[in-house]
Specification:
The structure is a single chain. The protein is an alpha+beta fold and 464 residues long. The protein has two domains: 236 residues, 2-Layer Sandwich (PmbA/TldD fold); 215 residues, no CATH class. The protein has nine helices and 18 strands. The strands form three sheets. Strands 1, 2, 3, 4, 5, 6 and 7 form a seven-stranded mixed sheet that branches. α3 runs parallel beside α4. The longest helix has 21 residues. It is globular, with a radius of gyration of 25 Å. The two termini are 47 Å apart.
Amino acid sequence: MRVKYAFLKTYRMMMPTRPVHDTPAAAQAALENLVREVLQQARKLGASQAEASVSVESGLTLTVRLGEVETLEYQQDRGLGITVYFGKRKGSASSADLSPAAVSETVRAAVSIARHTAEDECAGLADAELMARDLPDLDLDYPWELAPDAAIEIARACEDAARAHDKRIENSEGATVTTHRGRRVYANSHGFVGGYASTAHSLTCSVIGKLGDSMQRDYWYSTARDAAELESPEAVGRKAAERTVARLGARKLGTRQAPVLFTPEVARGILGHFLGAMRGGAQYRESSFLLHAAGEKIFPDFLQLSERPQLRKAMASAAFDNEGVATCDAEIVDRGVATMYLLDSYAARKLKLKSNGHAGGVRNLIVKPGELDYAGLLKHMGSGLVVTELMGQGVNGVTGDYSRGAAGFWVERGEVAYPVEEITIAGNLRDMYRNVIAIGNDVDLRGSLRTGSILIAEMTVAGE
């Protein structure tokens, strides 16, 4: 078989003008020196405060489809961002060129912008006393020296396992292997300098099955900091095929009220709407369905949502946020009560509060699992809908009204009866949160929000 290679090399930066630093310590020192130099230039140009971040990233992405290499893409990116403050005036600029001349020009551009912007009383760095002082090694860096030939072998093994699993698998959207490594350093004029290297590797497979006139597609993926912890290519392929075959022969449902069980992959999105509503920006703009909800009981007593931002080797770990503020463990929902807003420094000042380390988002959220596994949740539900896929964007962040296209399975007497498609589930997020009746122990560890399946007592299911 002849293999076609599509080399899509991207160079979104100028080639480096400084020497290449081979060791991690030397690479870290070089980036720290660069951001210090940027801050020094900003001070010389009159800035009262400044912050800068620099990143260097590289990676490889390879896709095999129907046994042939479809794409092989190398990425190599560098970037610098600088924000300066002249009192309460702010200016920002960025560059993908890290040469000395380009860096100086970027600083001057930020300064020029700041001198022409209007004052904003909430502008400025995060408070100095909030800066992270302890920067532990969170074990995030596991480089994978993946040669193209090895990547092709892995992707082929994954897709082959999926295609061979069942004769009803008739086509493939491919198997993709990705490896990524980056190093980021942030510094500001409070004297804070911090940075770290991190890696992320993944393996994904998507296939298409056919039974009579019914065609279905599904996928599976594995992701990890350390490539040694990825699921095997064969396991990923088989799971993609199993999920696809299970959906064949899907039916529609008549409109009804029914319990709804969200599997872990989609359950994290349900909680993501809660997090969005509690963000400082949504609060000070008064565009949240949970306006002024800190201290209010949103969920049942048993629901506990914990943030653990410094878990070793986890996918969203960081010792400091995007403004240098120390991250720390927090109970974002404690016994059903929303305890805090998620604040960066600007939103905190708007709300007359303090930043709590959430510039750039939340990190490693863990929903306390219940006692029931997936099979136990089905039996507890009795009859109802299992949702495995959501489509569309029908969520109103201001009112909490929720309406999404969905697919999954209809359950009767605690057992899956048949797959369903082309249905809509609807409700209001406040009601949905109040009506959570169980959290599964089938926790999905692949993302920044770790949760089991979530069972909601009742929603509107609309179909035929």
